[in-house]
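[agent] plan:
  1. take the single chain provided in the ticket
  2. run structure prediction with default settings
  3. attach structure tokens to the ticket
  4. add a short note for the reviewer (M.T.)
[agent] executing step 1
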Amino acid sequence: MIHTRLKAALLSALAALAGLAACTGTGTGTDAAPAARRWQPQPRTAWQWQLSGKVSLAADVPVYDIDGFDNTAATVAALHRRGRKAICYISVGAWEDFRSDAAAFPKKVLGRSNGWDGERWLDIRRTAILRPLMAKRFDICRTKGFDAVEPDNTDGYRNRTGFKLTAADQLTFNRMIAKLAHDRGMAVGLKNDLDQIPQLLGDFDFAVNEQCAEFDECARLKPFIAAGKAVFHVEYNLPPSRFCAQSGRLGLSSMEKRLELGAWRAPCPTAVAQNS
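[agent] step 2 finished; step 3 output follows
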């Protein structure tokens, strides 16, 4: 039988070890929260996605997805005062030469262009290098008060990146990204990467998808809906009349956007106002 003082000491030591296990190694500490305490957007939740121009607060929707670097804590607070949730857009799988931390990325992790000016794929196998850089980016999101993160470029293994990336490499990286968000008390969305939904459904709180209707892929997002997790979806080349009926049947949160992702939006009428 364990002596009372020894038992107390052991419990204290175990608690300390648990605290260390939650640490990200960045020296910033974490706000790790169980899923029950994180924001969990539900299917059909209406949203706005604006990554260019000054954020317009005119859209009467419960969720805004905006750029994490370009927007301030004041903008996030303004959204919160209006009862909105705020998602922090951050590129995790590609380097951007216009970001304030661009110089922190060593050349050896930079690959081919991803098709956008000033952007190059990252070697996601280099987690020892990329993990602390992404942790700092997610710290920015948390400090500004965001509720969730939209990590972009999470399907490099299916592209010509300049690196021999595998599906296993992508799973490892994407799970690392999800944990970085969860360790900071934020929800996290799986961006595109349809092939790995079965493996990653449990790691992500919602999905963000582009053009699943145009490419006849929307049914592949049903596992998120079945799990009670929102799918935030946009089309660029189809009018709402071409995809809203299917979106409504599937339970997606859908709208048409222009490619520059400004304030303009043409939502499907099936999205409803839920912010729980």
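[agent] step 4 note for reviewer: The first strand starts at residue 47 and ends at 50.
[agent] ticket updated
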